[in-house]
Amino acid sequence: MKKEAISTQSAPQAIGPYSQAIKAGNFIFVSGQIPLDPKTGNVVGATIEEQTEQVMKNLTAILESQQLSLGHIVKTTVFLSQMSEFPRFNEIYANHMKMPYPARATVEVGKLPKDVKVEIEAIAVVA
Question: What is the pTM of this model?
Fold first, then answer.
């Protein structure tokens, strides 16, 4: 199966040896997005709500570069620095996702890049 790297200036550039996303067949595998401003590379927001909003913007930008939307996501994996913030994260996440909701796993981790509160990776299907 052929794979193709996806890159857009509308989302933060990769800060390591990985692609923003990879297209393989009918799937788009979006690398974990943290709440970085695509223009400055700085962390956006101090609260879980602000950071989740920026992560969703970054996911949207990558998908839109392929003429897709959040509605094309079939699976997300969410990494939280504090599971106690899950209800507040979930409220923002729910504002962006529509039914049928993607499958999802959410885990608490010891630390995330740049000490952010949230990171989300996604798998989307090209309809």
Answer: 0.96
